[in-house]
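Q: I'm building a small set of examples for a reading group on sequence design. Run inverse folding on the following structure and report the sequence directly after it, with nothing in between.
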């Protein structure tokens, strides 16, 4: 049935949206990167459900590999908490 993949995709996009909002509102930058990684996992699984394996692989490589490493390196060179001066 076509309804189950659509429901799963809608659920995954909702999870991704929730974790995106959590990442934006979080003051601890390490937690924000973790929330962003969870959002990337949800999008990657959704792209797999939508039968887009090329986008899934790129999203996993960038969303879970390159992006968090660069952001965590930048955080390690600055302050961990946002707004503390």
């Amino acid at each position: 049935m076509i309804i189950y993949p659509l429901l799963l995709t809608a659920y995954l996009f909702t999870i991704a949206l929730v974790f995106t909002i959590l990442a934006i509102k979080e003051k601890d930058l390490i937690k924000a990167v973790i929330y962003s990684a969870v959002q990337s996992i949800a999008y990657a699984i959704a792209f797999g459900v939508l039968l887009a394996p090329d986008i899934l692989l790129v999203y996993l490589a960038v969303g879970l590999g390159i992006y968090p490493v660069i952001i965590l390196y930048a955080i390690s060179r600055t302050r961990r908490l946002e707004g503390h001066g």
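Residues 3-77 form one domain.
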